[in-house]
Nucleoside recognition
Amino acid sequence: MVGILRRGLAVGLQTTWTLGKVIFPITLIVSILQHTPVLQWIIQLVAPLMKWIGLPGDAAIPLVIGNLLNLYAAIGAILTLDLTVKEVLILAVMLSFSHNLLIESTVASRTGMSIALTVVVRLSLAIIAALLIHHLWQGGSEPAQYGFVSNSSEQLTNWGAILLAGVKKACLGILQLALIVIPLMIGIQILKELKWIHVFSRWMAPLTKALGMKENTSLTLAAGLLFGLAYGAGVMIQAVKEDGVSKRDLTLAFIFLVSCHAVVEDTLVFVPLGIPVWPLLIIRLTTAILLTMLVSFIWNRVEEAKRKEATL
């Protein structure tokens, strides 16, 4: 067990270093750009579109960064913005559905999934969720509090102060990242080396069946739920090959996983934003279950109609 913990710690530190190299410069650059005309030009360009989903123009920055890079980079950008609790929740829900599109869509394609379908489903879910929260929830008007990071709108008068404030904000962001990622990576290492992922997949078999998939899809689903589309790629691709998962079940599994994957990491990562993360997890799980059941129902109806036509 000591060896497992040591390897998990090493993976956690390596992951923190890898992600920190993304978060630090992005947080620093966005912090500095806030004091230049560049950010205002971007905000003015996209503000009319962002209003439709209840967000200010500068909220486009974390959305673009998160979808092109990852959640950690997006959170680094959010930490530089003055937003309300409602605006942060809308961003968090959108980013939880749609992030890291380039890498995760490519991973999905290696198991036979369509990249276009993956991207369309994720972006659609993000936009629909934002519209629903914007129109149905009237609360959350108070300013968001970002954990260790102060988001005060203090006026900085010289470039030295601006640079120092940006470095401080970036360092605090990485510290919060480490406090989440290192224990998480240790836990994932334990799950991998003790083969508990296989136990979890057996527990999931009834849910897999309820969602309209065969039981041999449960390992693919479990790997995606626990490790995510990127970290769980190896396990998922191998499970698809070894377990003989059908094209239909694979499609349904990925419909579920693009809505809800890496349930531990992608939930805990939003803790520094100071929003309640349980509603975020419930929204993702509920959406994944309902959407998968709907697609399964429609798929069954279409196949049944084809069989009837074939017998005529």
Observations:
- The chain has one domain: 1-306.
